[in-house]
Amino acid sequence: MEIIKVGMADLKIGQAPARLLTSGLGSCVGICLWDFLSKKGGMAHIMLPDSTKARVAGNPAKFADTAVPALIQLLENHGACRRRLKAKIAGGAQMFSFGGEHEIMKVGQRNVEAVKTALAAWDIPLLAEDTGGNIGRTIEFDLETGLVHIRTMAAKNYHI
Amino acid sequence: MGEFKKLSEAQLDVIREVCNIGAGNGATALATMLGQRVEMSVPEINIVSYQEILEASPICQETVYGIYQKIKGQAPGEVLWLLPQSMAQQLVEMLLQRSVTETGSFNQFELSALAEVGNIVTGGFLAAITGFTGIRFYPSIPGVALDYGCNILSSVAAELGHVSNEVLIIETIFKLNHKEMIGHFFLLPEPDSLRVIVTALGV
């Protein structure tokens, strides 16, 4: 079985029985899109909410607002049906505690909100999410079943 | 792309030397606090894309404590310490002069003590650079995380995503008494910050 690795600020697609894998999801969010009929799917590992705040041009996979349409487009180009696409997301933790309420590193929460806004804007239903908290995640997206398997430091293995 | 790749070898040498002096001062501050000898490696500079960052350092695959400070001012950037759990426990015990609860379940006070270790080294590091460049740095209060190194480092690197498509990582390893690893100290400057520093030095 093929495992396709997705890096930070990266997006990839595949076809069952392949699995898409990304690690290092701290404040970042992993977006999984799946077409259950063709069993094609894609994953993006976004770092930041909003591409309009960027001072450098480039990589659509870096931002929530640009990664969602880029992933949809790529899947459509490879024969997935846009109307059948459903989403699952994971990540968006706040990794650091500052001994009180501080605005630094709230980016995890903002990433999750931005991904949801983008999915809604492109009419992609969000089926499940495992977001927030203060712990990083590794996710493996099974394109055969549409399940997203999640691992954390606490060695919990679960799926959404 | 290529914001960091425009730096010349000579400029990178200057940055390395600046960090070497900074880290030396940080090591001295830490040694004073602990009453023990602290050694450090020569800082290593790596320029990596975001896609490569999860494999950027061997410590990325371990469960470690992370102490993070955001630097503001003329030359902004991110500072991160990654410490093995056993060393974090040892440092907190040295600092508080008593044994502490098992690592992984530090209370708020012990976490603050650990954060202070980061603060001292970062302060020493930046003070040295201010000393010969005149550039002032404003570090945030430190935050503490416990997780895989890659999850922590990626979250810190993501903070630079608005200004860069790649990350320049300056990594220095600190050791206690010549042998036992204290931790890895990472400095992730914004691209413009390096220009500010080399300009201040007239390079």
Please tell me about this protein's structure.
The complex is a heterodimer of chains A (160) and B (203). In chain A, a hairpin with a 5-residue loop joins strand 8 and strand 9. In chain A, helix 1 (64-77) crosses helix 2 (107-121). The model of chain A has no long low-confidence stretch (mean pLDDT 92). By secondary structure, chain A is an alpha+beta fold. Chain A has 2 helices and 10 strands. With 203 residues, chain B is of the alpha+beta class. Chain B has one domain (9-201): CheC-like (Chemotaxis protein chec), CATH 3.40.1550.10. In chain B, a hairpin with a 3-residue loop joins strand 3 (63-73) and strand 4. In chain B, helix 1 crosses helix 3 (108-133) and helix 2 crosses helix 3. The relative contact order of chain B is 0.26. Chain A: Belongs to the CheD family. Chain A: Its EC number is 3.5.1.44. Chain A: Probably deamidates glutamine residues to glutamate on methyl-accepting chemotaxis receptors (MCPs), playing an important role in chemotaxis.
Query: Mind telling me the CATH class of chain A?
Result: Alpha Beta
Count all strands of chain B and give the number.
8
* Unreliable parts of chain B: none
Write down the Rg of chain B.
16 Å
Number of helices of chain A: 2
Q: What structural class do helix, strand and pairing data of chain B support? A: alpha+beta
Which descriptor suits the 3D outline of chain A? globular
Order of helices and strands of chain B: HEEEEHHEEHEEH
Domain module count of chain A: 1
Total number of distinct structural domains of chain B:
1
Order of helices and strands of chain A: EEEEEHEHEEEE
How big is the Rg of chain A? 15 Å
Question: How does CATH name the architecture of chain A?
Answer: 2-Layer Sandwich
CATH topology call of chain B: Chemotaxis protein chec
**Structural class, from secondary structure content of chain A?**
alpha+beta
On the 0-100 scale, what is the average pLDDT of chain B?
86
Oligomer classification? heterodimer
Distance linking N and C termini of chain B = 23 Å
Total number of strands of chain A: 10
